[in-house]
Design a protein that fits this description.
Elements: H1 8-13, H2 21-76, H3 80-88, E1 96-102, E2 108-111, H4 121-124, H5 131-143, E3 147-150, E4 156-164, E5 174-182, H6 184-235, H7 250-285, E6 289-294, E7 297-301, H8 303-309, H9 313-316, E8 343-348, E9 354-366, E10 369-378, H10 380-433, H11 439-470, E11 478-480, H12 482-492, H13 494-497, E12 502-506, E13 513-515, H14 517-533, E14 544-551, E15 556-563, H15 570-573, H16 593-603, E16 607-613, E17 617-625
Parallel strand pairs: 12-14
Antiparallel strand pairs: 1-2, 1-5, 3-4, 4-5, 6-7, 6-10, 8-9, 9-10, 11-13, 14-15, 15-17, 16-17
Helix pairs in contact: 2-3, 2-6, 6-7, 10-11, 11-12, 12-14, 14-16
Protein name: histidine kinase
Enzyme class: transferase
Catalytic activity: ATP + protein L-histidine = ADP + protein N-phospho-L-histidine
């Protein structure tokens, strides 16, 4: 198998061998030995130097404490020569650079160097004239205690100690003992020891690296090459190849794992071939149309797609997608669907008729390149059945309201006829008598005719609401005044509500919603009738059915229908919108009302939610999208 192009230089020059395990491991160990040696050296040097500083500082502190007591005793007893000898004896230490005893005026009383005797401190040792030295001497004088420190560069230990210069003298006659100890030679010796220790550790690691290198080269090299060769042949497609390594070490375990992997790959390839055959059979025999397209061009169509579109399979391959769709749906087929959500698209059959499909679209790789697959299901007949079910549910709702509507019409008809008879009788009586009507009679006749006119208007409004609810319109959507729809539905449902509860309207300031007025009327009339039927008769004053509207945000409006009825058990809430599910007694409900309501809302781009508590009532919330201001409502047919 040829190496990748980007590795060709390493391959031809042989430098790739440096990346092999038998060479790389010793190199890594060698690099680790060097890094470990450097790290150990730096750490040991720092630790040893710190130990030197601490040791010398402690030694100087002890020496100064001893000298402080000795010198003060000799000075009190007047033994000046012994004081000078005591200080001079400090010069025997090879690491002590200088030792000085200063009087209160800063002159040298005793020193490790005879040439400095009697000189001012700044001439004998110029470092004592520095501000830092003066500040430390003043601080030691204030505390009357010694001060021993390591200087900033770590090369010296400097100590100051206040000394009482003699007996019976004023307290301000305080001198100083100054010692300066050199750390350079001590640190150099410790550094040399640290270097020898780090070198021994590094050599030991280098020896281990060499031994491991030989082990990897001779003991494992051939087995690694055998495993490498088997891996390359397996990658080249020879699925029968096995490494065949034995042993209980890690490489033997790796060889057995490689053979198991090769066996699994072989089995997986065989299973993949069987799966591909099964998948192709599934695609070919599925009743749903499967269309694969890329860049608006059809690449694959299964037999169900051929039946859906009426074209031959060879004719479909290579055709533009827009030729197979009705105007307005060309771009919707290629748009990815939301997970679990299908959309309706109108296909163009070869015969010219329109086919309604429920389509899910998503992206997949096809022939090694990105493509889009659309799975379509013919729902033309199902849509027709749904329309019939909606019409049936609408008629069921009208049948439920028939008695109440008849009662609503009977009242205005009664007093219209009564007032008209009164007016006719008055006019006939006076006309037959040949007398003109008096002013009071004219007022009574006028009042009767006006009341008859009001009754006629009331009957016309009831008939208009019925016609608005029962008529079949096209499926065009447009801006709808939701308050007008709710008022119309409330009028039709008044006979169902008034004996059970009080109707309460709480309308907010909302824009028009995007929908179909007739469908929305069917939706809210169904919800109002259900709300009324959930409340037992007999206590209309304490129960209520509440209609509420409000804006959720700039894009949505919510309409709530709330009742104080018996409520819905929690186990029934999940099944509430399923077809033919009802909690009403047998013969009272079909179980289609809420299912159709759910379909109406989702078809118009909205959603419906329900919450309920047993014994306290139920609330249905319908969320509808706001209509764009530029959209004009569809023209309504004129009433006869």
């Amino acid at each position: 198998m040829n190496p990748p192009r980007r590795q060709s230089w390493l391959w031809h020059t042989g430098w790739y061998r440096l990346l092999s395990l038998r060479v790389l491991v010793p190199l890594l160990l060698l690099a680790y030995a060097c890094a470990f040696g450097i790290y150990t050296l730096r750490r040991d040097v720092a630790v040893r130097e710190q130990q030197v500083e601490e040791h010398v500082r402690g030694d100087v502190t002890l020496r100064m404490t001893h000298l402080q007591g000795t010198l003060e005793y000799l000075l009190r007893t007047g033994q000046s020569e012994a004081v000078r000898e005591e200080v001079a004896s400090l010069g025997s230490s090879p690491d002590l650079r200088v030792g000085l005893l200063l009087d209160e005026h800063g002159n040298v009383l005793a020193s490790t160097r005879l040439a400095q005797f009697g000189k001012p401190a700044k001439e004998a040792w110029p470092e004592l004239a520095l501000p830092e030295a003066l500040a430390r001497m003043e601080a030691a004088r204030q505390r009357m205690s010694g001060d021993v420190r390591v200087n900033e560069d770590g090369t010296q230990v400097v100590g100051y100690a206040p000394i009482q210069l003699g007996p019976g003298l004023p307290e301000e006659r305080v001198g100083f003992l100054y010692l300066q100890h050199d750390l350079t030679q001590l640190k150099a010796a410790q550094r040399h020891r640290a270097e020898r220790s780090a070198l021994r550790s590094s050599l030991l690691l280098v020896l281990i690296a060499g031994i491991l290198g030989l082990f990897f080269h001779f003991a494992l090299g051939r087995r690694v090459q055998r495993l490498e060769s088997a891996a390359r042949r397996l990658a080249g497609g020879e699925l029968h190849v096995r490494a065949g390594l034995r042993g209980v070490d890690e490489l033997g375990t790796l060889g057995r794992a490689f053979d198991e992997m090769a066996e699994r790959i072989s089995n997986d390839q065989e299973a993949l071939r069987r799966s591909e055959a099964s998948f192709r059979t599934l695609i070919e025999r599925t009743p749903d149309a499967v269309l694969v397209h890329r860049d608006q061009t059809l690449l694959f169509a299964n037999p169900a797609a051929v039946a859906l579109l009426g074209h031959e399979r060879e004719e479909l391959r290579g055709r533009k997608v827009e030729e197979l769709l009705m105007p307005g749906d060309q771009e919707r087929l290629t748009e990815p669907s939301q997970p679990g959500v299908a959309r309706e698209i109108h296909f163009r059959h070869r015969g010219g008729q329109q086919v309604l499909g429920e389509v899910v679209t998503f992206s997949i790789p096809f022939d090694g390149q990105p493509a889009v697959v659309s799975i379509a299901r013919d729902i033309t007949e199902r849509k027709q059945v749904q329309e019939k079910l909606r019409a049936t549910d609408r008629m069921v709702s009208l049948g439920t309201l028939a008695a109440g509507v008849a009662h609503e019409l009977n009242n205005p008809i009664s007093y219209v006829l009564s007032n008209l008879r009164f007016a006719v009788d008055e006019l006939s009586e006076e006309t037959e008598a040949g007398r003109p009507l008096s002013l009071d009679q004219l007022k009574e006749v006028h009042q009767a005719l006006r009341e008859a006119l009001e009754g006629g208007e009331r009957m016309r409004n009831i008939v208009r609401d019925l016609r608005s609810f029962s008529r079949r319109e096209d499926e065009r959507f447009g801006p709808v005044d939701i308050h007008a729809v709710l008022d119309s539905c409330a009028s039709l449902a008044r006979s169902e509500i008034r004996h059970r509860a009080q109707l309460v309207k709480e309308y907010g300031e909302i824009p028009r919603v995007l929908g179909n007025e007739s469908r929305l009327g069917q939706l809210f009339l169904n919800l109002l009738v259900n709300a009324a039927q959930a409340i037992p008769e007999g206590d209309a004053k304490t129960n209520h059915v509440r209609l509420t509207t409000a804006s959720v945000d700039e894009a949505w409006v919510v309409i709530s229908v709330q009742d104080t009825g018996v409520g819905i058990p929690p186990e029934n809430l999940q099944r509430l919108f399923k077809p033919f599910f009802t909690t009403k007694p047998v013969g009272v409900g079909t179980g289609l009302g809420l299912s159709i309501c759910h379909g109406i809302v989702t078809a118009m781009g909205g959603r419906i939610e329900v919450s309920s508590e047993v014994g306290k009532g139920t609330t249905f919330r319908v969320f509808m999208p706001v209509a764009e201001k530029s959209v004009q409502p569809a023209a309504e047919p004129k009433s006869a």
